[in-house]
Structure formats: C-alpha cells, structure tokens
Specification:
The protein has two domains: 83 residues, Sandwich (Immunoglobulin-like); 190 residues, Vaccinia Virus protein VP39 (Rossmann fold, 3-Layer(aba) Sandwich). 28% of the residues lie in helices and 33% in strands.
C-alpha cells in the first residue's frame, strides 16, 4: 500500500463506524466513509467537528455546521496550494490520499531530463495536473464537468502556475482521446482517475468495468515513442488492484516492456495508527 503520510495541512484524525474525522487546515470535518468498518474510538474527538455531513435515507445528504465556515479555504501540500470547500455531495474538492501519486509524478517528470507532455483524464479539480505542471511538464487536462474545470483553474492560480503550459478541456474523455488519435497528437504520460459511473457533457455514458479497457487501448494510440509512465487511480467498489495490474500487463507491458505495479492507496489515522484504505492504483513506468 502507498500511504500519503507527508501532509501538514491535512490529517485523518480518527475513523470508524462508517465515518472519518479530518482536519483540513484549521477546519475539522466529519464525513461518511464506508471503508471505516471498525468501531469508532475516542468519541470525545468527534464532538470537535466544525461540520458534519449526514447521509439522507433518500439519497444524497446535507452538511450540519457547528460554526460558520468560509465558503472555501486553502490547504498546502509541500509547494502546492489547493482550494477546499464542503460540497453538497460530501466531497471537499480534493482527495488527500492522491498525494502519493503526485509525489511519484513529480519525481518521474523531473528526473526525465527532457520535455514531457501529460494528459490527465477525469481530472476533477486538477490535483495531478498541478503536480505535473509544477514538475515542468506541459499538461492537457480533460473533465466532463465545467464546474470542476473552473475549480482546477483556481487551483492553478493558487499554485502560482499560470505561466505553465496547461490546457483545460471540458469533454468526454474517450471522445477526446479518439480525436487526439485522429489529429496525431502524442503524450509521454497519461494519468486517469475514472469514476465508477459517469456521463459526458453530451450525455455520454461511462461505466468503469465496461469502458476502462477500451479507453486504455485508445490511449495507447496517442502515446509517444518513449512514454514515461501510465497511471490509473480508481475508487470503484469491488474492483481489485490486480485488475489494473492485469490490464496494464496485457497492454503497456506487452508493447513497451518496463515495469508494472498495482496496489492500494491510503491515509494514516492519527488516533490509533491504523491506515484508512482509499482506493487502488495501477501504474506502468519505463525502465
């Protein structure tokens, strides 16, 4: 498991009974997390939450605020700065467990000693985009949500990366990749964080288990002759990291050799030294 344990502005304070207690800068949030299936401990800590997200029995949920919070605030991860805001669908605009993937990307791009062009698919608010751009890469990021893309542009400004080559595209990821292939555009790195289910801006249907392999095959058509790495992150329940390992072995490793690995990513829990599992990753990298 890859653990994102170098945060200073974020902390998973406690987790249990299907919930997690987190510190985002100076703000403490309490949110559902289905992976936290063990009993809740240190109940006194949970009373310190500034806001508590309640799930609704009819779907969705709502925030219960114990004090007035700003509409948004910022947190730093090393030299990167991100906007955080409690959204109506439980999220905050940032997945802190992804820091381990950001570190990997930064190190690989910086050590490449050549110009690197990155494609970030299902880019959300652009965490991976900012990491790659910070490392010196030219980045194209694609997401179907205009709102998340605007949030990513705010993160670019917060990170001081306005002078870097970053393109923000609102589009269906598969359609964009197919058009890039027809245009003859190439990328040295592809990063993706595909959802379990989703729709493109024009209603295009995405289903992880049905569409992932085809997307990766399409992505291989737009890789450069010397790709640097290919990184997949996923949160789809019931999908093993071995699935990502096998897919990358039968695609990237078969064509380019290199090295493939896969596993879980997680966050350390402060109050009991456990680790909260937060999804899976699979990556291919050159030798």
């Amino acid at each position: 498991m890859k653990i994102s344990n170098e945060w200073k502005d974020y902390e998973c304070i406690s987790a249990g009974n299907g919930e997690k207690l987190e510190r985002w800068g100076n703000v403490v949030l309490r949110r559902p997390d289905p992976q936290a299936m063990w009993p809740m401990e240190n109940n006194h800590l949970w009373k310190k939450a500034d806001a508590f997200y309640h799930r609704s029995s009819t779907g969705g949920g709502y925030w219960d605020f114990n004090k007035k919070l700003p509409d948004f605030w910022t947190v730093k991860y090393k030299d990167l700065t991100f906007k955080v805001s409690p959204t109506n669908f439980k999220h905050t605009g940032l997945f802190p467990e992804q820091a381990t993937n950001w570190d990997f990307s930064i190190n690989k791009i910086k050590s490449a000693n050549r110009p690197i062009k990155v494609l970030n698919l299902f880019a959300y608010t652009g965490g991976a985009t900012m990491a790659a751009a910070y490392a010196g890469a030219e980045v194209v990021q694609v997401d179907a949500s205009k709102g998340m893309t605007e949030w990513a542009k705010e993160n670019m400004k917060l990170c001081g990366l306005e002078d870097r080559k970053i393109r923000f595209i609102v589009d269906d990821c598969l359609k964009f990749v197919e058009r890039e292939a027809r245009r003859g555009n190439k990328y040295d790195v592809i990063i993706m964080d595909p959802p379990s289910y989703g729709r493109g801006p024009n209603g295009e249907m995405w289903k992880f288990e049905h569409n992932l392999y085809n997307l990766i095959q399409s992505c291989m058509k737009i890789l450069s002759d010397k790709p640097l790495f290919f990184l997949i992150n996923a949160y789809t329940t019931g999908i093993s990291s071995t699935v990502l390992l096998n897919i990358l072995k039968t695609t990237m490793e078969t064509k380019y050799n290199g090295k493939v690995e896969a596993g879980e990513i997680g966050l350390p829990i402060t109050d009991n030294n456990l680790v909260l599992p937060c999804g899976i990753y699979g990556r291919w990298e050159n030798d």
